[in-house]
């Protein structure tokens, strides 16, 4: 018995850790079985009970027929709807919107309307446009009568009548008709109002768009209801989209029934009478602060808290006062930003001390990303050396060039900033003045911005008048600012590309490969691309074309392609010239195509592919941008591989070659843009056609168009090595560029050094 008790005690002690798990499983299984039996019995009773159904319990949602949840029931179950298309109905392609924002029904945030007049359009309205217009996403000016000349950069809507009430009525109708479905908030202001644009934009981000909002400086009606308020027009007011949609059907009634002298009172009475909404100065915890300017006010001396917190200031009597207000509020805002930066830097220091790295983890400047740490020697970012007069890392590859333009302004600004920061730190004990920049270094770090290291020769003066010359090294960072999305016009990949291929006698050996790649990558894939050949005959060859046509073989290959692809036609144009100027050739082609044609000016060594053609379509925008790709030029295989087998793996793609920045042979542009630039060029050179021999299409767009010139490396354009023929009849610059392209396309420095080393070894033996 004792042995049995001991065995039982050992068993219980071994089982004790698992007892809670076993009890939990047993209890859970029992409760689930019990609940299942109750549910089953309740279902049977509901199905088998005779008589009318029992009324639902109080508060329960009504049942729909066949046991489905009725309206208001929240227990929805997903249901898969199989796709079915009626074969008797014609198939209709679904049209998608251009932008996902339109398809999802998103609205823009803020629309701003400025009420002006013919008398103040060229004064106060211009001041508003120069101070705050660039901060708002959309701003329009509304006036009764317009002047003969509208100021540049202003979108003006004239209603044809200067009566204030009529102007307000027409403005509200116009906003509803053209922008009512596109924006969430509408801000109405006068041209004698200064508004803090950033504060107004911040205000609307903190308000809910689900309410009818009439927000501004609330004023009492003269002799009216004490509870009713209208928003004073001089200080601007904010309307929500929902209120504008409800107000629009009543505008005609308001115009006929409400009499008022002031347009803001008329609008306020209209909103109150028909919508029952009064103006408020505070909503959802947000205050609409305003400040009324007194006569002869000096904004620079205004230190009141009410002035500094104001969203709108009124009245502004002249343009100069508007600019002074803008300067003062910009200074106030800048001081706030600097104070916020200092507070954030202090918080970062305090929090970093609690991290595992401790105070050593704080990077300089505090709050800016740490410098980029290269993982290999190939990722090291090099420093560029400069002085106050010269730069020793030039864009054209030369070892030394004069510091000018934006680079000179950048260096001058960074030196001034360094001296200013030193004086701010050491004053009043010391005051520094620059004597000379001894050494300057800068590099661009993509993770943080432009970094500078300056060795300055300074003169330090004490409070007692003593001075001393010393050298001091300072480090500065120009951090990357807020990233902005640049709006671009809409483009599509469905645009037809017209390839233009100029051919000379020296190009005949490469035409077959070009046509094969064109057929494989465009004709076989049914890409929306066409080809036009431009045969350039030398005058001697043109005279003998009846007996011996140098391009007969090319024409035969074109005929074979047209037989293989019955729907394809490849036209050609014959030109006789000794100097094949790119501009003159393009003039001939341009006249034979519509103005909306997208040209791709190609070279015979180009291997056409769909990937590049799509980028040509996307990077070329009519009346906005032209695209000049930088192709990848493979090196001479005889120097690179020296008899070894050529690397063919994908990992070696774009390895044994370079991007040829000296070549401008390839270009994507619209015919209309070329014709516009060419017209300006013709007016400039008059009848001096010899000037065209020293120009390329790139020069035409660079000097005679206001378009964006997009010049970027293009990995989709890969050209095999070939020694190209440089025409000495072209200008000196074009000939020199062609020779440089041939020389740099031979091989890399390491390959050339190895070839020279092997040649010297062979000569020595």
From TrEMBL:
Its main location: Golgi. InterPro entries: Chond_GalNAc, CS_glycosyltransferase. Transmembrane segments: none annotated. It comes from the Eukaryota. The keyword Nucleus does not apply. Pfam families: CHGN. Keywords: Glycoprotein, Golgi apparatus, Membrane, Signal-anchor, Transferase, Transmembrane, Transmembrane helix. Residues 47-79 are annotated as: Disordered. GO terms for molecular function: glucuronosyl-N-acetylgalactosaminyl-proteoglycan 4-beta-N-acetylgalactosaminyltransferase activity; N-acetylgalactosaminyl-proteoglycan 3-beta-glucuronosyltransferase activity. It is a single-pass type II membrane protein. Residues 50-64 have a biased composition (Pro residues). Belongs to the chondroitin N-acetylgalactosaminyltransferase family. This is Hexosyltransferase. It comes from Platysteira castanea.
């Amino acid at each position: 018995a004792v042995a049995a008790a001991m065995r039982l005690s050992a068993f219980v002690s071994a089982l004790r850790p698992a007892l809670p798990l076993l009890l939990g499983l047993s209890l859970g299984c029992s409760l689930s079985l019990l609940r299942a039996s109750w549910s089953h019995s309740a279902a049977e009773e509901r199905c088998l009970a005779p008589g009318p159904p029992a009324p639902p319990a109080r508060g329960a949602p009504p049942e729909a027929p066949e046991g489905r949840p009725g309206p208001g029931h929240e227990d929805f179950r997903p249901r898969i709807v199989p796709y079915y298309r009626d074969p008797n109905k014609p198939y209709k392609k679904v049209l998608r919107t251009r932008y996902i924002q339109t398809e999802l029904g998103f609205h823009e945030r803020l629309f701003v309307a400025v009420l002006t007049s013919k008398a103040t359009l060229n004064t106060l309205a211009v001041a508003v446009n120069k101070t705050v217009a660039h901060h708002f996403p959309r701003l329009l000016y509304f006036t009764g009568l317009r002047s003969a000349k509208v100021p540049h950069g202003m979108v003006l809507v004239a209603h044809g009548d200067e009566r204030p009430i009529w102007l307000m009525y027409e403005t509200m109708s116009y906003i509803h008709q053209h922008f009512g479905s596109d924006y969430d908030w509408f801000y109405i202001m006068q041209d004698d109002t200064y508004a803090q644009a950033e504060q107004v934009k911040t205000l609307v981000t903190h308000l809910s768009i689900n309410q009818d909002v009439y927000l501004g400086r609330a004023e009492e009606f003269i002799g009216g209801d004490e509870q009713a308020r209208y928003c004073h027009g001089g200080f601007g007011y904010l309307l929500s989209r929902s209120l504008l949609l409800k107000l629009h059907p009543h505008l005609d009634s308001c115009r006929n029934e409400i009499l008022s002298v002031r347009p803001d009172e008329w609008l306020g009475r209209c909103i109150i009478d028909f919508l029952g909404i009064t103006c408020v100065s505070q909503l959802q915890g947000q205050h609409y602060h305003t400040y009324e300017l007194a006569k002869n006010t000096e904004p620079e001396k205004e230190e009141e808290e009410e002035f500094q917190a104001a969203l709108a200031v009124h009245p502004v009597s002249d343009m100069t006062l508007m600019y002074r207000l803008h300067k003062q509020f910009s200074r106030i805002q800048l001081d706030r930003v600097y104070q916020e930066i200092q507070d954030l830097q202090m918080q970062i220091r305090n929090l970093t001390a609690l991290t595992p790295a401790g105070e050593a983890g704080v990077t300089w400047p505090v709050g800016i990303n740490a410098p980029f740490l290269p993982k290999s020697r190939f990722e090291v970012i090099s420093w560029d050396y400069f002085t106050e007069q010269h730069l020793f890392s030039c864009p054209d590859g030369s070892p030394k060039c004069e510091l000018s333009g934006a680079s000179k302004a950048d260096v001058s600004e960074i030196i001034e900033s360094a001296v200013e920061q030193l004086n701010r730190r050491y004053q009043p004990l010391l005051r520094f003045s620059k004597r000379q920049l001894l050494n300057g270094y800068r590099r661009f770090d993509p993770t943080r911005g432009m970094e500078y290291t300056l060795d300055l020769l300074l003169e330090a003066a004490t409070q007692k008048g003593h001075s001393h010359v010393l050298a001091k090294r300072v480090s500065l960072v120009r951090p990357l600012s807020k990233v902005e999305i640049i709006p671009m016009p809409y483009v599509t990949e469905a645009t037809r590309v017209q390839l233009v291929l100029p051919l000379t006698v020296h190009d005949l050996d490469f035409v077959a490969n070009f046509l094969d790649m064109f057929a494989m990558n465009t004709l076989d894939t049914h890409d929306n691309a066409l080809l036009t050949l431009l045969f350039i005959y030398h005058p001697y060859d043109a005279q003998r074309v009846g007996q011996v046509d140098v391009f007969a073989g090319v024409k035969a290959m074109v005929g074979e392609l047209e037989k293989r692809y019955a729907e394809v036609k490849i036209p050609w144009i014959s030109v006789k010239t000794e100097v094949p100027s790119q501009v003159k050739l393009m003039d001939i082609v341009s006249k034979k195509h519509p103005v909306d044609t997208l040209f791709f000016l190609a070279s015979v060594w180009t291997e056409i592919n769909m990937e590049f053609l799509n980028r040509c379509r996307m990077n070329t925008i009519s009346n906005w941008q032209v695209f000049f790709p930088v192709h990848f030029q493979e090196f001479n295989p005889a120097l690179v591989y020296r008899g070894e087998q050529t690397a063919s793996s994908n990992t070696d793609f774009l390895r044994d070659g370079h991007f040829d920045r000296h070549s401008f042979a390839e270009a994507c542009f619209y015919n209309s843009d070329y014709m516009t630039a060419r017209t300006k060029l013709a007016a400039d050179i008059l009848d001096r056609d010899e000037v065209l021999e020293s120009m390329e299409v790139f020069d035409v767009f660079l000097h005679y168009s206001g378009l964006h010139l997009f010049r970027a490396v293009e990995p989709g354009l890969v050209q095999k090595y070939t020694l190209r023929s440089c025409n000495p009849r072209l200008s000196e610059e074009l000939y020199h560029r062609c020779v440089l392209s041939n020389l740099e396309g031979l091989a890399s420095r390491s390959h050339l050094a190895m070839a020279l080393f092997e040649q010297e070894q062979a000569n020595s033996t």
